[in-house]
Amino acid sequence: MAVDDTTARRRGRRPGGQDTRTALIEAARAVFGESGFDGATVRTIATRAGVDAAMVNHWFGSKEGLFAQAILKLPFDPHELLAELQDGPDEEFGRRIVRTFLTRWDGAGGDVFQALVRSVAGHEQAAAVLRGFFQNFFTKVIGGLGSDRVELRTTLCASQLVGMGLVRYVAKFEPMASSEIEPLVTAIAPTVQRYLTGNID
Hints:
By secondary structure, the chain is mainly α. It is 75% helix and 0% strand. The protein has helices spanning 5-11, 18-39, 42-49, 54-60, 63-72, 78-85, 93-108, 110-122, 124-145, 150-170, 181-197. The longest helix has 22 residues, at 18-39. The N and C termini lie far apart (75 Å). Keywords: DNA-binding. Residues 18-78 form the HTH tetR-type domain.
């Protein structure tokens, strides 16, 4: 009896390309929905997607990273974003962070940030993963800069970016809601830079 080609492809491993990433995101949404964050395992998600569990770390770094992409729907890959931000002088890190944040969220559309806020407000696991994302992300950033008081600096940076997103995309306060990106970078980046490397006493 001939084997249905579609069935055979589903049972086999997918190639390690973009279709693997998409399959993992779709499987993660289903498994997280069924089991919650704590109950969902990397192996279960990978099995649902028809790929090796190592692909989760390859594409997303961790279960938390996959949750960020599948549930929080962040419009960027945290690992790629960190590498992009590290490309430049340390004294301009604040400018790169603010410009990249605004560019990515503007490109994704304000409704995506609104959806993120709703997820965090109504879903403790989403809030926990978002906190973990900012903690891990800025710990790497600040640690690489050699700054002290990493935990406080991380919280300060996160408060600036989340607050900026709320004002621009959710509350839509003018003129910030409709401002071009570069004037906002000029106004906000020095504060972020101080949180990263300056005196916070």
